[in-house]
Amino acid sequence: RTGRFDRTWESKNRYSMNWFYPVLCGIYSGVPAQLRMSHRWDSFVEQGLGCRCVADEPWVTVAETSELILALEATGNHQEASRLFGWLHQWRDEDGGYWTGYQMEDDCLWPEEKPTWTAAAVLLAGDALSDTTPASKLFSPYSMLSSATDLGEDLPHE
What we know:
Shape: globular
Helix content: 40-55%
Radius of gyration: 18 Å
Largest sheet: 5 strands, antiparallel
Number of strands: 5
Low-confidence stretches: 144-158
Structural class: alpha+beta
C-alpha cells in the first residue's frame, strides 16, 4: 500500500548526508555516483576546511568530511579523497583527538567536543585510503561480492 509511507516531511536536500550517503551505501556506483558527487560539491565542500553538515549553515565537521572521503573512495576518486583527508588534521588536538567541527563565521571550533565517533570516522577514512586492514574496502562496490564469494568457499556444505 502506498499510503504506508509519510511523504509530507520537509526535504532533506540541505544535509550533506542526503547528498553522499546514497553513494556511500552503494545505491549509486560508477558514472552515476561520480555525477552525483560532482553535482552538489560546491554546496557542501569548503576548500581547505572540509564538508559542511548542512548546506546553509556555516560549519564543517570532521565526521562528515571523513564519510565524504569514504564515498569518494567508493567512486574510485582516490586523489580527491586523499586531498580531503589532508584537510582533517588541522582539526586534531595535541592529545590526538579530533574536534567535532569548525564554525566559519565565528572562526571557532564548534562544538568544543572530541567525540570518539569522530575519531572512528577518521580511522575508517584513513584505512580506506591506505588499504591497511581487511575492512578498508567496506564501502567499495565490490567488497560485498568478494566477501560473499570468499565466505561461500570456506563454508562447509551440507
